[in-house]
Structures are given as C-alpha cells and as structure tokens.
Amino acid sequence: MEVGRSIPRVDGADKVTGRAKYTDDLCPRPVLEAAVLHSTIANGWVKAMDISAAQALPGVVKVLTCFDVPDIQYPTPGHPWSVEKAHQDVADRKLLNRRVRIYGDDIAAVVAEDAITARRALKLIRVEYEEYPVLLEPEQAMAEGATPIHAEHPDNILAKMDLRTSISDDRFETVEQVLDSPDFFQFRGRYETQQVQHCHIENPVSFAWMEAGRIHVVTSTQIPHIVRRVIGQALGIGWGKIRVVKPYIGGGFGNKQEVLYEPLNAWLTTQVGGRCVRLDISREETFQNTRSRHPISFDVAAAVDRDGNLMARSCTAISNQGGYASHGHSIVANSVTGFRQLYLDRIGHHSTAYTVYTNRPAPGAMRGYGIPQCNFAVECMMEDIARAMELDPIAFRLKNLMPLGYVDPFNGITCHSTGLKECIQKGAQAIGWEELRARYKDQTGPVRRGVGMACFSYKTGVYPISLETASARLVLNQDGTVQLHLGATEIGQGGDTVFSQMAAEAIGIPTEDVHIVSFQDTDTAPFDTGAYASRQTYVTGKAIKKVGLEFRQKLLDYAAELFPEAKDLTISERFVTNGAGERLISLEELATTAFYSLEHSVHITAEGTNHCKENTFAFGCCFAEVEVDIPLGKVKVLRMINVHDSGRLINPALAAAQVHGGMSMGIGYALTEEMKFDPKTGRLLNGNLLDYKMPTSMDHPDLTALFVETDDPSGPFGNKALGEPPVIPVAPAIRNAVLNATGVAVNTLPLSPQKLVEEFTKGGLIGHV
Amino acid sequence: MEVGRSIPRVDGADKVTGRAKYTDDLCPRPVLEAAVLHSTIANGWVKAMDISAAQALPGVVKVLTCFDVPDIQYPTPGHPWSVEKAHQDVADRKLLNRRVRIYGDDIAAVVAEDAITARRALKLIRVEYEEYPVLLEPEQAMAEGATPIHAEHPDNILAKMDLRTSISDDRFETVEQVLDSPDFFQFRGRYETQQVQHCHIENPVSFAWMEAGRIHVVTSTQIPHIVRRVIGQALGIGWGKIRVVKPYIGGGFGNKQEVLYEPLNAWLTTQVGGRCVRLDISREETFQNTRSRHPISFDVAAAVDRDGNLMARSCTAISNQGGYASHGHSIVANSVTGFRQLYLDRIGHHSTAYTVYTNRPAPGAMRGYGIPQCNFAVECMMEDIARAMELDPIAFRLKNLMPLGYVDPFNGITCHSTGLKECIQKGAQAIGWEELRARYKDQTGPVRRGVGMACFSYKTGVYPISLETASARLVLNQDGTVQLHLGATEIGQGGDTVFSQMAAEAIGIPTEDVHIVSFQDTDTAPFDTGAYASRQTYVTGKAIKKVGLEFRQKLLDYAAELFPEAKDLTISERFVTNGAGERLISLEELATTAFYSLEHSVHITAEGTNHCKENTFAFGCCFAEVEVDIPLGKVKVLRMINVHDSGRLINPALAAAQVHGGMSMGIGYALTEEMKFDPKTGRLLNGNLLDYKMPTSMDHPDLTALFVETDDPSGPFGNKALGEPPVIPVAPAIRNAVLNATGVAVNTLPLSPQKLVEEFTKGGLIGHV
C-alpha cells in the first residue's frame, strides 16, 4: 500500500539543501528589468503623463504607460474558462490603467538594462491626475452620490445574491416570520472579519521572452495553464502562442491563483523585440497590488427551539471587493453557502450577499475562499446562542450538524461521509474539555484562562459551481520506473509526494519508482486547472487513478504478449506475477523489452482526462486553550488541537504538516493580522512584514493535529479536501476561548490588544481611568 | 498540402537573430567547471598519479582520477539498445582510463570553482606511465607481436566479416574463380580513404546537476534518449534516474551520435554533492578525443564481360578503428554492403571486412557511415574499368545499376523506388556532359580541365540491421493549434520544420498552427532513438503520420458529438466541415469546447509508437567540372551539380540546403582534409581549425542541387533518406574529373597539392628536376 504511508516529501531534500529551483533561480542574467509605476491617488484618472525624462535616462530601454496598452479589459482570477459568456469572469482591468481605483494602481512601466535604472526612471515620470473622494468601506461606496469606481456599476455593487430555501413548516411563509416567532429563542448578531494578506515567502516574480514567434513566461504561480489563457486574453492573441513554465514556488495560499503581473510581463517583452524581461514584485507591491482575504461583515439571525434545535437562520453578508473584481461574487457566495451548510435549519434559511467595489487593494482567493470569514460568524453565533440559552456548546452543535447524506438544495453537493461528530469528541477528549470548562468557570483576577472550540465543513473542489477537469500522463522508463506528468501543481503543500503515492498505488509499484515531473510547462504538461479549492488530491487524484490503472493494464497486456499461457497477471514487488504468485518477469526487463523488442517495440505511456462531476464535504474542528492578560489585552494560546476528517489520508505526516501550517495561519488571523489604511488617501499603512504583524514561533503553542479517517466513497482513494480546511476554525475557537475566559464576546477580528482593551473596558473588566 | 511546400525554417528567425538557445546559453553561472587531463603517451598504462598539489590549489573542489572511477566498462555509440547480449555495443572504456590507448586519453578530471583554476590544476598532476610502442596503422597493429590494445582482442582485430553471395553461374564455384576467368575483363585495384573530422561549429558541451536524487544533464547531442541510457550504463544506475535535455545544437554530423563526455559529466556531479558541473570540450579536445571518419582501405577486384556487364566483384576492406570500438564493426560492414549494393554482380560477390584497433583517436559515425569511403572505392573502380575497357563511364554505370525491386540477399532491404537513371541523365544534361567530355579530350599544357561523375545509393534508417522505433505526441491547444512533441531531434538539418509540415499534413491544418517542442527532455519527450542514419523523416515521419491521423480522428469524433446529425466530417481551412463542405465549427471553438465543456471536458492528445519494419534506398549522383594546375597540384572546382532521388520532398528549399551542405563537406573530403599524426608519439599534429584545412567559401563554386522526385511507397509521405547522401559522391566525382583532366588516377584521399604533385610526377606530367 503506497497510499497511507508517511513517506518523506519527494522534494524535501532539495528544498532543505537549497537545490530546488524557483523562478528567479532560472532567470538568465543579465536580463532586462521592469518596474511598475503606481498611482499616488486611490480614486480618479490619469489625465496626462510626461515620460520624456525617464525615456532619456541612459539604460532605459522603453517607458510604457496606460496610454500605450492594448484597449482590452481582461479578468484575472484563476477560474476555469467558461464557454458561456454569462459565467465568464469579470473583465475590469487593462494591463495598465488610466482609471485609478486603488492607491498604488499600475499606471506605467519601465524596462531598463538594470533594476536601479528602472526604479530611477520611475521617479522621473510626471503624472497629472483627476481625483475623486476615497471610498474604503462598502457603506461609503454604496452611499448615494458616491463616484462609480467602474462605470458598469453605478452603485458600486458588483453583484448581489438572495437565496431562500423552501420553508418546511406550514405555519410560516418566510424565514423572517420564523425569526420573529415568539415560539422560538431568537438571536441576532453582527460579526466582522478584517482584510489580511497571504504573506507567502516568495513574492510574485516572472520573466518573459519571445522565441519562435511565441511568448514564453516563467512564473511563480499555482495555475500555469490558466496563466497561459489569461495572458492570451489580455494581449488578444491565441492561447497557443503562449508558453508558461511553473517551477517550485515559495507559497501561494490563493494569491498565486490569480493572474496578476504575468500579462504585463508578457506584453513588455513584445514591446522590446522579444528580449527577456524580468518583473520582480516587491513585498510592498505584493501587499498593495496583489490580493488579500476579503473583509466581510455578517448580520445574522437565528431561531432555536427550546431543545436547542436550529429552526431558521438568516445572514446578510457584505464583502468589500476593493478596486477590482478579482474572483467577483464567488467568494461571498461561497461564504454564505458555507454559513448555511454546516448546520441544519429545520424550517428554512435566507442568505443575502453583496460584493461591493471600494478603493481598497482588491481581495481575492485566500486559503478558505470565504469560509474562514463565515466560519467566524457561524461559530461565534453558535457559541453565543449556546451561552444565551445556557446549552452546552458542543452538545448544541452536535444536535444541529450537517448529517450524512445531506444534499445541498441549491448545488446538490452531497455529504458522502462525515466524521465530524467523532472529530469533536476526539478533540474534546484530547484537550480535556469537560475538566477545563469546569475549572475555568469562575475566575477572577487580571489573568484568566479559557477553552473554546469551533467546527467547520468544507467542500472539495468547485463542482458543480464550476468545471472540474484534470489530465494525467504516465511514461514508462527503461528501468521499470515511471514518469508522472501532470498539470497539477506542487505549491509547497506536498502535492508532488501524494500524487506520486497515488500513481504508485494505482500501478502497483513503490512510490520510489515514480519520478514526478514537478515543473509544469504548458507546452507539454497535461492540462489541469491547478492548485486551488483543495481540489487536486481529489480531482487530479481521480485522473491519476484512472490513467494509472490504464497504464497498469498496458504493462500487463505487454506481459501477456510475452507469456501467452500465463493467467491472472498482476504486479507485485516490481515483478509481473501470475495467478499462482510466480514471478514471470521484472518490470525492468518488461520495460526494456517493450522499448527494444525487435518483434514489438512500444513506448508505453498513458494519458487521459478525468472530467470530475462529484464533490464531497471535509470536516473538522479546532480546540484552543488560552490565557488572557486582561489589562494588557494580550491573548496567549496555550494549547491548540485541530481534528480533521479529510477522508482517507494519502500521507499522514504530510497531512499533519498541512494542518500545522493552517493552524499557524489561523492564529495570525485571530490575533494580530490586519491591513490598515489611511482613510483620507486610501494608502496602505502597514504593507510590509515589519508593520504587518504575523505571528512568530514565539506566539505559537505546540500544535496538535489529529485525524478521524473516513473512507469517502466519492474520493479516488477515499480522500477529500485537506489543503485549506486547517485554517478555518482557528479564529472562532480562540475567540470562543477568550469569551470562556473573560465573558466578553469580541465580534470582530483580529483580537488585537488594542481592541481587547477596548472590549474589556466596555465589558467592565478594566476600570475607566 | 503542407508537405511539399518550401516554407521557411520554423527555427530560422531565432537562429539568425541569436535568440535560439544552445546548451551553453542555458548553463547557470557561476557554475563548477570541469577539465580533463589527457595522457601524453598513446599506448600504455598509468602506473601512478600524484594529485596532491592539484587538490591543494585554492579553488579546486575535487580531483578525480582513473583510479577513482567505477569499475564499469561501457559502450559509447548511439545505437538503439539491444535486448540480445550478442548485439550489444562493445563496452571497452571506463569513465577515465588507466589503460591508455590514444595520445590524449582521458586519465583524470578536475572540478574547480572556475575554468582557469581547473586548467591550472591539471598542470599540477604528476603521472607515471608504462609505455608501449605506438600503433597507428592496421598493418602495425595486426603484425605479429604487436601489443594488444584491448586484452580481449590479442590480435587487435575487433571483428572480421566474410560474406559471399550464392554463385548464379554453374561454371564457377567461387567468386575468385570468376575473378580469375579469362572469359572476362579482369580488374584489380586499391583505394584508400583518410581520417577526417566532423568540425561542427559547436564543440561538445554539457552541464549536469542532481535534483530529487536524480542526475540532470543538459547537452549538445543528436540522441538525448540514448545519452540517458549510456549514462545509466556507465554509472551503473537505473536509466530512469537520469534526465537528459537537448537544446538547439550547433551541428553534429554523427559525432554527437555518440555518448562521449556526458557520462563523465554526470559522474562528476555525483562526486561534488550534486552541485552543477559544466564540462566544455575545446576544439583541440574535440579533434583528439571525440570521433572522426574511419580511414578504410579497399582492395577490390572485378570481372566484366565484353558488353560491360559486371560479373563478379570482391572487396577486402580494412578499417582503422583507433583506440576504442565506438560503433564497432558496423561502419565497415555498412561500407562493404554499400560497395556491393549499388551495382549488380551477375554471378557473385565476395566481401571481407576487418575492424582493427590502433592507437589513433577512435573514428565513429560521420555523415554517410562508411558509404563515402566505399563510394570512393566503387566509383573510382567503375571509372577505371570504363577507362580501361574504353566504355562510356555513364553508359557502363547505367548498365549495371541496382534495379527497381532489388532485394539485398543478406538483409532483405528492397529497392521500392528508384530515380537514379533519371538523376544521372538530368545531371549529365545540366553539366553538358557530352560536350565537355569531347572538349577535354586532348588537352596539353600545365592547366587542364576535366569533368567527372559518381553515383551512390543509400538506405534509409537502420532496419533490419537494428531496431527502428519512434514515438510522437500531439497536444491540442485551446486556440485550435497543436503542440508537436517528439524525441526526434533538430540538429540543424531542418528536422523541426519538416516534422511540423508532416504533422500539419496528417491533421489537415496549416503548418503555422503546429508548434513544435524543439528541445527534448527525456523526462517527458516521447521516445525516439534520435538523429542518425538519415532516419528521422522516414521513421519518425511514420510515427508523426500515424499519431497525426489518430489525433485528427479524435478531433472529428468530438465534433461528431457536437453535431450528431452531420456526416462525412473533415477538416478544412481551420474548420470542421460536413460532406457538403459546410463549416460546422472552427477548430478554435471545437478546442475550447472540448477543454471547458460542462458536459464532456477532454484534453485531446494523441501519442503512439511506430515500430518501423521497412527500409528503402535513396539515390543520387554528383557531376564535377574541375581545373587542375598540374605544377601546383592545385584542383579548382569550377562547377558542381548534385542530383538526388530522395523520394518526395517534404520541403524542397530545405532539401536543397541540405544538399549544398553535403557538397561542401564532400569538397573538403576530396581535396584538403586529413588528420595527421606524429608516427613516433601518435600525437595528432593538426587538431585545430588553423592547421586542419576545411574548404572556405573561396574554395567553392556555385553549388547546384537538383532532384528527381519519386514517390516511395514505403515512405510516410513518399519520402526517403536525404540527410547524409549529399556528401557521398562528391570525392569520387572530383577524383574522376581530375583523371579526365590529366589522365592520372589518384587512388587515395585527399587530392592535396602535395599528393597530386607526387602523382603527376609519377605519371610523367611533371618532369624530374
């Protein structure tokens, strides 16, 4: 069994020894360097630009402005293309923009012989603007008379959605009636999440050149095939005219599921005769000009019967989309859907969601895709209801959890397996829930402890909201080993390792005999939409299994030619054996024979597509124990345990590592991280790793990752989503632990000292000076 | 029709603008530099080596010697592997050799931080030798008491072959009886060819590093998949553990059909912790340590009836193999086979061939693979017989040519098509043969003119002597264009262009819509043995056609899903049309739909192997008009016309360019090129481009390439060999023209001034001083 083994990462040794090649390692030197000029206003127009001094600077090859770019609006998100126009992404930006929508918008670019010259030239460009008031919050942007940020949306609302389930109780006609009924306990609340950045180690970097009349781009991306397509759209050329290569990447977390600077880089090379141009985005630019996680506010209501059964809920989510549509309405739509799915409303549910343009840097995909936000809302709400009704918060949740066999009424996604109840029980036992809740009941004094938890559900991939398709290719080597060739990407998550294990399992060989082609080259790699939506082990995994079995059959068919008398051939321990378990031929000899036979030479390969029309839910929970220094507003996480049902684990050690990373990201989301803006200018105030506070190892307790393994019938190897989930329940678990410790319910993120001191003061724990 | 069009080379623009990437362009810098220590004796043993001073030099990373290398003997030639031990290549060298067999043998290597340090370190290595007498000629090596150069061959004869056809005339029992019969005109002669070098522009260069536990090698080669295999053999590791990448190369001509320094480079990286090591072979090393064309002597005899019908011939060829087996006996075997095949012996034929080890740099494959040598012998002989019998040399040849339908009695290769007679007639007419022969009949004076010609036949690929197998892969792009993915290599000959035309023809799309993946990466490229034996347009062409038709059918099948009512679907002008010629869908829309359809998403590709079990003969002839300055011994080529039957031409302009290159190479072979050795030490005396005389543009007349297009029924598109043939008939045509001008038959190559003055003196044209 290759699946289920905790083998070391196939890329591990290279990465720890510095041998692994990232985009910038592959860039030829010397190379032309590009730099981008960013606007110094957040809302307005570029009226005129004087580039004469910049163009005259020695070493400057070319200065290009928003007046020079192709008149093509293009979309940036890493979605599969849709053949239906209505389902295509919002095309709302050009390569460089005259209409400035964020502070720091891309308005010009310089290509120079070296990076210093390029940056010096930027300073020589004179810009004349027409300026409008800055709109940073949805309320400002939606207000009467606010300037439309995109002319197509005069009210600055990119999209609105209103979804009502059917009402299952004849006494009511609407959810609102249930939420007003005196028969039930009624709850209302508002929860808000903040804008945070992915903070991957490797900033976006790419280089591009022309060869054979085509544009070649090497870039740090999660989605090479989609990058190819979006460059084609942005430049208005055939997608086959573009080649994208993806080396190892230093993290993405969804930010590299968007096609940000590759189209500009591709266009720049076409403007300098095809010479190689490098575009290296700084950390500050990464904060300001790439993506982030949406701030979303949730106004929620719930009706609960006296036994603690959820009867109905409503949720109005407003998502701050910043200056560009990016993934459009998808993320807040996912958010309200996730809010609804985790718990069962016995009578009905009503969701409303808005996506609103503002002048903030545009948020996009970030690990969890709207679910960390809704999970904060729903898990705070569940805690607050339980507290108000004096129910045990775990028992209350268990009573209302999504059951096995649940089918979403809107998208049909089915709960094919669930271990969530067992996850909660396992986590509670591991942290000593009962004992801690009892111990922390009646604390006094400035430093108090508390324990909290939160659950989540998460779907696997994007079907049926969008297309799920993946291909794989296997190529036999002469020594009986195999090349595994995918369009799916290793982005630090361990994809290459689990893909190799899956291929080995399907073929029946050791994982050591599978050599994965890690870098995707869109000229030759099978097609796959890439790393996002926790889809690859599931969707690509199905393709690997399908093609692996076909490849295995080809090996056995060739063996059958050599041993026509043999029966029930199978592969075992690098040999083809017959039904009696006798070794007929080693795979090495079989391979060499197939290559070089004078009777029948064939180079055995298999390639195919799996169009995936299934989905399933992963589950899990987080338990956190905290110590709160009330006067300092300081939360110390003492212990944290995540318990996950991600189906069958392909590689338990890598799964645990993935959970650790997610928990760490969740701690930052809960306690310290927030992008802050100057309300006047719209300028990002803390767009660097000094002022933007990520948690360090000093802010972490030991992290514990536990699993409840289910065998999902829809998963290729019983597996389901694992990539994004670990981050989801951490912030509400910490918030609920702080509530448990202090009795103060903090309803906005992050739980920073500044905010906690305010909240504790309001709550009477800190006296007014 | 895409086949038959003279479209520009697909790599042309990049190559003339300097944008095309060759191996060294891709090497990361800084990089560890390797240098090889060469022996200063030609025959003997390394008894001891002191590397202490070299190892102590700052900047030296590692010094490795013939005492350190794996104890593995491996073969170097670019043949397909054979599963039968008896047919495997001779494994007669190690990575570095204690047993020194040529002057300059590889005995140690230094890896240093820079190239200057590496070369300085070489000078610090002290070597102690045991030395044997130097054996440069087969006669010396075969002499009684000569030191065995390889212990396995005490008589220094690597191989001997003796082939007799059956005798078709009851009056004789052996060919020798025919050759003694007074019934026939009897002829005896001896012809000798010299050792020459390929002199490709780009010397061998490679770099290698380790990643994911595997060895990666980028190298200038004709045969990336074979390089992979030989590295595996030389290092004793699984072939799947090696990845070879072949970029554009600056010529090969057969020298890069051998695996020369890649195994050493691969091993060196394993000895320095997998760091990237570059091994750049100098021009001098290329002359001394890589391959060359075999010097072969031919002792021939013929019996001819009075009507000019060849009755029988015999040929004893002795091939000087130098210090290493390289391609072993194959080349002289091919040589005597080619000698026999071109003309028909009505009673019988007897060939004997010897391959003899000497202490010369080892010859190997070079354009023509033994045929330029035998062609010099056979075409001189035919001329000399005609002259002696006072027959018209063209009429004499026409009477005896290989006929259509000829089947070789030993290997079964069949003449499926022949335009040789038409080639000869076309060439004779173009040069004005009759008129010139009459005009040059009775010349006197020091400067005389002459006209000569020679014919040849050449098989296409290596079947059935060896395996012929090739794979191809086609990948649909979203814009309806196609990636063509091959293991076959562009080596400057225009392969990429004609492969693209063939794929376009098979699919039914314009060649502009085929994007060839030029660089071979053995991790992902389909398998192909590579560029040699003029095989690729024939053998790989069959694979392209097979896979192209399968790919086309997949496109049509998908279209049929979309248009179930439509009939007789075909592809025309980038559209799928029905039987009535109506356009149903563009290929672009078809492709996009196939990728992104929510009903049936499939990424259309096709991949497959063609095991080629056919062969056929290409033909041609050369006509040369020369002016000979007798006192100076100087030959000036006034006009030269090659006429070729290579079947149907895929790209006539590229075919003509290929012929021009071959003619140029033939002029050097005929007149000026020869590797010269110090008989005492065995040291090569002219191993550089100053002392080794290649012809320059000043030595060339205008070259004319003409064709007689046949439609070979065995060729994928009616085509047959073209790569090597143009060089073959040039030297005998020039020699025969000199004979025509002066009456002096020069029977050894080259026709250098030194030699001609001697021959003219012997012939009485120059008086003794």
TrEMBL record, chains A, B:
Pfam entry (one): MoCoBD_2
InterPro entries (alphabetical): Ald_Oxase/Xan_DH_a/b, Ald_Oxase/Xan_DH_a/b_sf, Ald_Oxase/xanthine_DH-like, AldOxase/xan_DH_MoCoBD1, AldOxase/xan_DH_MoCoBD2, AldOxase/xan_DH_Mopterin-bd_sf, XdhA_XDHase
Keyword hit for Hydrolase: no
Official protein name in the record: Xanthine dehydrogenase subunit XdhA
UniProt keyword Oxidoreductase present: yes
UniProt xrefs under NCBIfam families: PRK09970.1, XdhA_XDHase
Native species: Flavonifractor hominis
Organism lineage string: Bacteria, Bacillati, Bacillota, Clostridia, Eubacteriales
Entry keyword set: Molybdenum, Oxidoreductase
SUPFAM superfamilies per UniProt: CO dehydrogenase molybdoprotein N-domain-like, Molybdenum cofactor-binding domain
Stretches assigned to the Aldehyde oxidase/xanthine dehydrogenase a/b hammerhead domain: 17-133
Alphabetical list of SMART domains matching this protein: Ald_Xan_dh_C (SM01008)
Gene that this polypeptide is encoded by: xdhA
